[in-house]
Amino acid sequence: MFSWTRPTRRRLRTLSVTGVATAVAALTLSLLPSFAQAAETTLGAAAAQSGRYFGAAVAGQKLGDSAYTTILNREFNSVTPENEMKIDATEPQQNNFTFGSADRIVNHALSRGWQVRGHTLAWHSQQPPWMQSMSGSALRQAMLNHVTRVAAYYRGKVVAWDVVNEAFADGPSGARRDSNLQRTGNDWIEAAFRAADAADPGAKLCYNDYNTDDWTHAKTQAVYNMVRDFKQRGVPIDCVGFQSHFNANSPYPSNYRTTLSSFAALGVDVQITELDIEGSGSTQANTYRNVINDCLAVARCNGVTTWGVRDCDSWRSGGTPLLFECNGNKKPAYTATLEALNSATPTPTP
Ligand code: 9MR
Fold first, then answer.
1. Which atom, in ligand 1's list, is nearest to the CA of 57?
2. Which candidate, 24, 178, 256, 290, has a CA 20 to 30 Å from the CA of 305?
3. What is the pLDDT of residues 325-341, one digit of tens each?
4. What is the average per-residue pLDDT within 164-174?
5. How many C-beta atoms lie closer than 10 Å to residue 283's C-beta?
6. How remote is the CA of residue 60 from the centroid of ligand 1, in Å?
7. Helices (H), the chain
């Protein structure tokens, strides 16, 4: 008699087989993959088992593509508008706010009971021309007005905002990134967080960045020190987003889990906000599995968003970094991600 039971998951069955040892082994091996997927069959439902969400960056113009929405609607339960909530999209002329493109995505999500991550209120990039040419106190006021108006408009609809995006420099300096916003004064980031808090007290307020995945990097440490300082001084910050765009030049680091847990220990949620991993086959699948397992190991890592749905939807489509082929087929990376999510304990434990 051979009996195999996966220890932690509900709704998994016990396999009992009699017979010669080789036949048992062969049968077991052939059944393992399907048993590993047996708990839930979509990413969103699998993530929900441990109280997490699984999201995708959504491009509004693709909502008319039924091949795209079939996958989106089946697999995901959170969205981040890929470009539609950025400053150039929502305030193309100063004090003239346009929310139509973002609303289309928000309504698609909310009508299905999904979450929305807002991206992003204050950023050096994708500023409309009027803002690019501003400086000093006029720019500071314009930035705060933007944060206030957009966060207030989406009050109650956006679960978490990337209040400030990519404000630190790459490389060994650990310095702030130079930008027109930074030149308004070093306190521009906390000013943006306070404005967002006043406009939408119920939203989780996140700082979001890339190349902050390796715990030893100066940029990671600089963001960590800022978040620790904010928590100590009572600046309203609730979460840190790790974009996690991984490729040969910016590889998944073996200390990623240390990074996530160290930030979480400061008393903030951590979220994987723009995940994509260039590559293919089992190598790519294994890295996706590692990333998901790292998140699952940290109680305050409460969700994952991939930066797009299919490879051809990606900003780096040549690197085939996502979970679905362009024809909609699930990749090995999808299976690895689903298996990892299905292996999580039912609710995050501290
Ligand atoms: O995916 C976005 C792409 O469509 C835009 O052209 C680009 C413009 O800056 O922004 C991309 O999204 C970025 C995100 O807003 C912030 N982190 C890096 C993402 C990839 O460049």
1. 1
2. 178
3. 999 999 999 999 999 99
4. 98
5. 11
6. 14
7. 21-36, 43-48, 66-75, 87-90, 100-110, 129-132, 136-153, 188-199, 218-233, 256-264, 281-296, 332-342
